[in-house]
Design a protein that fits this description.
Layout lengths: L7 H14 L4 E6 L18 H7 L7 E5 L6 E6 L4 H7 L5 H8 L3 E4 L3 H10 L3 E4 L14 H12 L4 E4 L1 H8 L4 H24 L6 H14 L4 E2 L4 E4 L20 E6 L1 E3 L2 E2 L2 E6 L6 H20 L6 H18 L5 H5 L38 E4 L2 E4 L4 E4 L2 E5 L4 E3 L8 H8 L2
Parallel strand pairs: 1-5, 3-4, 5-6
Antiparallel strand pairs: 1-2, 2-3, 7-10, 8-9, 9-12, 10-11, 13-16, 14-15, 16-17
The structure holds manganese (II) ion (MN).
């Protein structure tokens, strides 16, 4: 493991949260993510299913977990690969049963060969069957996902039972983070901070965007992160106006701004940050004007993050504030705002959400109408993008909701233009 061992008490707590939401005589099943084929005999880098990790801490492929209360007591049963010497010769050592127990705190562990028989017995004796599934409404894929296929088979086979998707239950559990999880997100954020400081100092005209990415990757890995929580965006000049620009293959031009949306993933927990800084270490007057406008919106929205609010409400407020800033910047006129098309006038310059939840996934579980509670972690990320002026600004921190309001986990990463200039010229 690249990260310090997570206490099994976290996974026990997480399992207990799930059990508390299962009706009597229920059995829930979660499969590891499939290994995604690349080409030839290769796979893409492996990342565990966040739901399975959440209740077990296990990152090994082909693992399965069943959470059941069909015999009235709550019980977790874990299945792992039977380690075969010929496979290990190629892929390295696989988990032993004692090791899987030490990571997960689960005492009943079998090899996957035994899964089918044990599951049949458990399913047969349960009234409610839950299957794991990626239910993110923004996921668009034509792939036949194994979880979904398994769920459909369950529905076909057990017509006399209540068969349902486990996602709503796991979402309700995962959305509020335990102190141990917050500590891991803080660690990921601290690594992200270190990368920004190094990059700000190394930035100069004439080098490629990917050279900044190389510094970032180096610092993430050196600090024990899994790597990037998502493909980093390192966009100078007009590239910053493309929201998900990840080619990072252009030369940094003197006079341009760089938008960098990035974050390390530590122990499978994400951090998410966006900063905008000048290639030559000095903002122009106009760049500073637009940057400060987004900074003001960021500060106001951040101060509105508190228990009881929703992301949908923050979004409305952001759009109002951005519209005002666009007016003062002279980007929009009062007439533009009055002429209503199918979309409001500001939409051309600000077209994305101001917040998403953050946790085991960078776009973590939880919807826009979720009422914020202490322990939830979310982004705050307003922006203004103008192709006319070739300036794209987005400012983003990872933020924890607290009893009193919120705590910015990235407060110490310079954001304001003056602080950035000071850092770059130090
Ligand atoms: Mn984000």
């Amino acid at each position: 493991m690249r990260y310090s061992k997570i206490p099994t008490s976290l996974f026990e707590k997480n399992r207990n949260k799930v059990f508390a939401k299962l009706p009597k005589y229920s059995s829930a099943i979660i499969f590891a993510n499939p290994q995604m084929p690349r080409n030839g005999d290769l796979f893409f880098p492996y990342r565990q299913n966040s739901d399975l990790f959440y209740v077990t801490g296990i990152t090994q492929e082909k693992s399965i977990v069943i959470l059941t209360n069909y015999k009235s007591e709550n019980k977790a049963i874990l299945f792992i690969l039977n380690p075969q010497p010929d496979l290990e010769q190629w892929e390295g050592r696989k988990l032993r049963i004692e090791e899987a127990e030490e990571i997960s705190g689960i005492s009943e562990i079998h090899y996957t060969e035994e899964f089918q028989d044990i599951w049949e017995e458990i399913a047969n004796n349960s009234d409610h069957l839950y299957f794991g599934q990626n239910c993110n409404p923004r996921l668009k894929t034509d792939l036949l996902l194994p979880d979904k296929i398994f769920g459909e088979k369950l529905q076909e086979k057990w017509t006399n039972k209540d068969v349902a998707c486990l996602s709503p239950i796991l979402t309700a559990c995962r959305i509020v983070k335990e102190p141990e999880e917050i500590a891991l997100i803080e660690k990921a954020s601290a690594i992200t901070r270190e990368a920004f400081i190094e990059i700000a100092k190394a930035t100069r005209a004439g080098i490629y965007e990917y050279e900044l990415e190389a510094i970032m990757t180096n610092i993430f890995l050196r600090n024990g992160a899994n790597g990037h929580a998502f493909d980093p965006i390192i966009a100078n000049g007009r590239n910053a106006c493309y929201l998900h620009y990840v080619k990072n293959d252009q030369i940094l031009q003197n006079g341009n701004l760089i938008l960098m949306d990035f974050g390390s993933e530590y122990a499978n927990y994400s951090s998410d940050c966006t900063r905008v800084f000048p290639v030559n270490g000095k903002f122009t007057k106009r760049q500073k004007e637009i940057h400060s406008a987004v900074c003001r919106v960021f500060t106001q929205i951040k101060s509105a993050i508190a228990p009881g609010k929703t992301i949908a409400e923050l979004q409305k407020q952001t759009c109002r504030l951005i519209q005002e800033e666009l007016l003062s910047l002279g980007i929009l006129s009062k007439q533009n705002i009055k002429n209503k098309g199918d979309k409001p006038a500001y939409f051309k310059y600000y077209m994305h959400g101001v917040s998403h939840f953050i946790g085991l996934d960078t776009h973590d579980v939880g919807e826009k109408d979720e009422i914020l509670k202490p322990g939830m972690v979310l982004s705050c990320e307003p922006g203004i993008y103008t192709f006319e002026e070739e300036i794209g600004i987005r400012l983003e921190d990872t933020i924890l909701v607290t009893e009193q309001g919120c705590r910015d986990l990235m407060e110490t990463i310079p954001m304001e233009a003056n602080d950035i200039e000071e850092l770059m010229n130090s």
